């Protein structure tokens, strides 16, 4: 038994509010999954789709010349406007163009560097941060090779 579209939309909005409260913005990474009451919500996909849908619908409505097609588009757009208004109540919501997100990667990278220099192995860091070992090496910089004399 699946959720109806309106209920699913509301569920995503709750997840978006949770994300916005924690992160301070709604610039959700495309592949981000938010956990809400034990359920994994593909929030990045949802946010991307809403922004994309708005652009496409507004473009289609403005370009439509066929009255029957325009009528169908208008009905679809009216439904979207209801959802658009709900999204705009979420603190930090923006339609775009979006600025890059906060420097969360810089914070993560600093943490990786600190842990690496305190002796945490590259493999452990790669596993814990879900990054390749190569990426960990790029973050921590060139390896220190002691000179033997």
TrEMBL record:
Name recorded for this polypeptide: Helicase-associated domain-containing protein
InterPro entries: Helicase_assoc
Domain Helicase-associated, residue spans: 8-88
